[in-house]
Amino acid sequence: MGIDWESIEMAIPLLAVGAMTTLKISSLAMVIGGIGGIVLGLVSLSHWRAGRWFVRGYVDFVRGTPLLIQIFLVFFGLPVLGLRLGEFWAGTLALSFNCAGYVAEVVRGTVGSVEKGQTEAARSIGMTHGQILVYILLPQSLRPMIPALTNDLVTLVKNSSLLSVISVYELTRSGQAIIAARFVPFEIFALLAIYYYVIVSALTYASRLVERRLPSW
Amino acid sequence: MVSGSKPLLTVEGLSKSFGDRQILKSISFTVMDGETFVLIGPSGSGKTTVLRCLNRLEVPDAGDIRLGDEPVGYRLVAESHTREALSEAALARQQRQFGFVFQRFNLFPHLTALDNVAVGPHRVLGLSKAQALERAATELERVRLGAHLAKRPSQLSGGQQQRVAIARALAMRPRLILFDEPTSALDPELVHEVLDVMRALAAEGMTMIVVTHEMSFARQVANRVMVMADGLVVEEGPPERIFGEPRDARTRQFLTHVLNR
Ligand SMILES: Nc1ncnc2c1ncn2[C@@H]1O[C@H](COP(=O)(O)OP(=O)(O)OP(=O)(O)O)[C@@H](O)[C@H]1O
Ligand SMILES: [Mg+2]
């Protein structure tokens, strides 16, 4: 027995292709989910009551149900709504949907905890609540938000492996295909672990760079 | 009283409680156009709360506030003579008639001095970015900070920050400015530069309500002084009289206390 080095050598470039898909989906979901989450977070702090209720329900749903079920709901739900997007976009949207819920919570927590004097000063020059959120509180919250956001994005990358269940040919799925063909599960799962670890480490490193570059005032 | 001027702000029966503690017990006073109105009194007497009720950072429980002819915080429905609460936008419009200078400056830390002053004219008054920046630069010159436009609050001394805060208020062209102990968070050697700016504003005829413990400023600059204690107005009058021959025992006690510090 022993380690099948030949399969490993063969798998490395094949997995790299899957890793590209993982990166693509994760980045797209970070952008869509990140922007969506910021908007939802601001709405949850707004004076718009229906909007606040909506966000509360949204976040409760995202946190209260398994991601796997959310993925299936999006994958099988989109066609019901008449949208045929294919598994790549269905998977991207499912992850974005999930990520937005967590980002919304981070935004609500950080933006909501900016010192009260900032809001009072902005009110005293006649800013409306919406203007205060966007121009005064959000910009000051970006840096303090980064550690918590990084956690959510790391989770997002790791969770993208669940998209293998709807046949998105991402990292985990491409590994499973190799295992099925050559039956070298240990070698491949070990490689997958290394690939994910590298991606997550790079993300964490990048976020530290960004955090350091943002002014702390 | 400033001769020949008319009332700008009328406050009648202003009351405010926090929980079951009544902090303001039916306060009334009038501020004339162009006047410097100084508010003094022991700690906890309700001075800050009065200012905060004026520009609606706190909602008063009762009382009438009028700015010029306009009631503050509500609208009178002509037909039925009933009061109607103002929309958030209308309240914001009223709020900006009152400039507010905070004890701890409350500048926006992520913006430069110039942008701190320009953000209101641009976002609230709808001036173009260029016009707003020009107005901000002018106001910062006026408080003698022309050399520090591009600095962030963290790069400025306390006295400079408070002057930016004054410029920020001025740039909104308020009808009066409320100062809540504008110098009490400053190192002693920086107090005079803020007071000098306020003196200049008073001389230009800006209407100001100033809460302060700077008794020499009150004596020199105030047109009238109002003394508060325990949520009540104790007495009110020209500074010479309040400081020279205080009538109320609480005023005498307070003055002895601050002047012997
Ligand atoms: N938001 C609040 N909630 C509860 N109590 C409050 C609140 N704001 C003020 N108070 C209380 O109201 C009283 C009057 O406060 P205020 O700040 O108006 O006094 P002040 O005259 O400005 O005092 P100082 O000279 O110390 O600034 C104080 O006892 C204070 O504890
Ligand atoms: Mg006070």
Short key terms for the protein model shown above:
heterodimer, A: 217 residues, mainly alpha, B: 261 residues, alpha/beta, Rossmann fold, 2 domains, 4-stranded antiparallel β-sheet, 12 strands, binds adenosine-5'-triphosphate, binds magnesium ion
Q: What does this protein look like?
A:
Chain A is mainly α. Chain A is 82% helix and 0% strand. Chain A has eight helices and no strands. Chain A has helices at residues 5-44, 49-64, 67-80, 86-112, 116-124, 129-159, 171-182, 185-213. With 261 residues, chain B is α/β, with parallel strands linked by helices. Chain B folds into two domains: 1-97 and 178-260, Rossmann fold, CATH 3.40.50.300; 102-173, no CATH class. Helices cover 35% and strands 27% of the residues of chain B. In chain B, strands 8-9-10-3-11-12 form a six-stranded mixed β-sheet, with helices on both faces. In chain B, helix 3 packs across helix 4 and helix 5 (158-170) packs parallel to helix 6 (191-203). Chain A binds chain B through residues 47, 117-118, 120-129, 131, 135-136, 139-140, 215, 217, and chain B through 55-57, 88-89, 92-93, 95-96, 98-100, 102, 104, 106-110, 119-120, 123-124, 152-154, 165, 168-169, 172. Bound molecules: adenosine-5'-triphosphate (ATP) and magnesium ion.
